[in-house]
Structures are given as structure tokens and as C-alpha cells.
Amino acid sequence: MTTKPVLVIGGTGKTGRRVVRLLRERGVPARPASRSGEVRFDWLDESTWGPALDGASGVYIVQNDGDPRTRALVRTAVASGVQRLALLSARGVDTPGYYGEDPATSEAFLEGEAAVRESGVDWTVLRPGWFAQNFDEGFFNEGVLAGELRLPAGDGAASWIDVEDIAAVAVAALTEDGHAGRTYELSGPAPLPLAEVLSVIEAAAGRKVRYTPLTTEEFIAELGAQGIPAEEAGLWAAALYPVERGFESKVSDGVRQALGRAPRTFAEYAEAAVAEGAWRD
């Protein structure tokens, strides 16, 4: 158990703030870092890196998707004395065509993975599938509240992973022995198509939502009409491609490998989200 602080990059995000909470529950000093967090960290301003890393024993790394600088950050971290790194990557990045024809998403994550593997210190890579929390904290929430989710996902299913489980694996990697050099693929316990997902949400929240499948072109056009740049819309479409193709239905055992227990079900996630105030008008 470390008594030195753990730097949590993206400490206000979906995974990061949960990593911070779980570290503190264990009595480990957590240093939440972001452009607006307790500790200032800006991927595009390297002058913020050193102060954020000073005295840290480990780092939880959430990459900057638009301009990945993970290798430079890792060099700075190791030079500052960091001994453990846990990187949030993504499932399927080592499978050609997993995110469609554009390899940019996979290449960025693979470069980050290579950086931590070549760091010379203990490292762990987390490769989660689609987050369950996207339905109440992220991209899907607006559609759920509107009563219709319109996505280019066809009839595909995903084994939605509860972000609480991702955070728990990250904290184990940063505070316990036995996780160094491991790559954990993380998923929920069973695949669920979007129509079934929305039925689970209805049962938990009493909110009826229908799913309408779109083509990729329709999806990008609709986001464009909402003012979302075409590049960003294209990234969301690429992220949904493995759902539409059925790739995300795979169940992985990384949670059990890392924590010795089964991952939380989507129903458990939905019930907890409702208890915390999700999906209220």
C-alpha cells in the first residue's frame, strides 16, 4: 500500500473521479488532475506536468484523444520517480478494422500502450468496452431523456461495462501487487442489444425510451444539424461501428482476473444510477 499520492489524470471525468474516490476510501492520497481540477494538468501545456507529478508514486492516465502525448508524459513521470502506471485504453485497438476503415483511433491507443510498456516501471493497461454510464452521464443521456435514442448501431449488442468496475481495476493496479505487465480486457457479464438496454432502464427508472437505428450518414448529418463538428461526429460513428458489427458483444473476464469477482450487471448499474438521481426531468 502506497502512502505517496497517486496522480489521477482526468480526475473529474467518468473514470477518474471514481478512481479518486476509491483511492481515498483505501486511505491512499489521490491527486485529481485536470485543467479545472484540484491539481492543474493540461495535456497541451507541459509546464503543468512536473508540478502535478511531483512526489507521485503512480499515475492513472486518460489520454488526450485529439493530440496524444502519452509517451512524453510517461518519460516525465518516470524521471520524476513514478513507479506505477495504469493506462485507460480501449477494447479492440489491436484488431484491424475494429473501428472501421480509419485506423486513427486504434493507432493513438496503441501508441499509448507502447509508451507505458516501454517505460521501465510497473504498468497495467485497461481495455474496457462501451461504458454503461454513457446512458446517464454521457453521450446517450440526452436521447434517453428525450424518449428516443437514434444511433448507427443496427441490431448489435454490447457487453456494457460499469465504470465503477473500471475504476476498481485501476485502483487495484495502482495499489496492489500482481497486476504489473497485465492487459485487462474489461466488459460486463453479458451482451445486451440497445432495445434491451432501454427496457432495463425503463424497469429501473419508469422512463420509456425507444431505439431508432440510423445509417452512419444519417447519424453524422443529425449531429451536424445540432452543431457538432463533422470530425467529432465521425469519431462517435467510428466508436459505434463495433457495436453495429457485433464486435462489442464479446464478454471478457478482465474484471474477474483483476478483482476476483464478476462485473456488475447492467441492471445493477441502472438501479444505482436511479438511486443517484439519473433520468429525472
TrEMBL record:
Task: Classify the source by domain of life.
Answer: Bacteria
Q: What InterPro entries does the entry give?
A: Ergot_Alk_Oxidoreductase, NAD(P)-bd_dom, NAD(P)-bd_dom_sf
Instruction: Report domain NAD(P)-binding positions.
Output: 10-176
Q: Which PANTHER family match?
A: PRESTALK A DIFFERENTIATION PROTEIN A, PTHR43162
User: What is the name of the protein in this document?
Assistant: NAD(P)-binding domain-containing protein
